[in-house]
């Protein structure tokens, strides 16, 4: 149970990172090489749901494990844990944020785009919390391979975030900024 | 378009649309994109004078149109019956 909960935690961290990267790519409106835009969106959604599956496989075994001493309250309410309560609490906050983001995603069509987008923004808070929880709370969190992986994930997300905030982020950025003078060669059939 | 007319219409809510281009990918024969990325009814798809926000789709395109409604990141699409 203990080993299983550790591995599934690391897997879900990688999947959450992939989901954040794909979400940023989807927001740009660009296809990914030969993968069309709607497939990027579907990949983003399905990898996110896979991350949720691994989060369940991360939390549930630790609930059942007598050594981990995690109880049901710790799953929802942060910072009450018996082992490293601060670092465990970060994971709990991240889990609560994932729940909010996933539920508003599933009910997107009923909630409308504004609520969906506002809550979806919490993903940007969720990711660093989850990463800090992985490194700070994990048994293997400070081992060389995990730290190296965490650095790689960090660089990837920071690069994507920098790209997200750059002026040329949108596929249509050049045309839209030019204020009506359509750039030649874009979007013409 | 079949002789009996379109199976449904795809309504584009322009106040929501941000021109991300998923719908035009899913419905390459019904939609093109303008220079800013926003979807347009393909040439000849909408009768002249008819509302360009309601794009007729054929029965064969209906499944793709429903996918576009589900996947539109801005929830700017809706199926309306003719």
From TrEMBL, chain A:
Pfam families: Ferric_reduct. The chain crosses the membrane at residues 6-26, 47-64, 86-107, 119-136, 142-163. Keywords: Membrane, Transmembrane, Transmembrane helix. GO terms for cellular component: membrane. The keyword Transmembrane applies. It comes from the Bacteria. The keyword Glycoprotein does not apply. Residues 9-130 form the Ferric oxidoreductase domain. It is found in: Membrane. Its main location: membrane. It is a multi-pass membrane protein. This is Iron reductase.
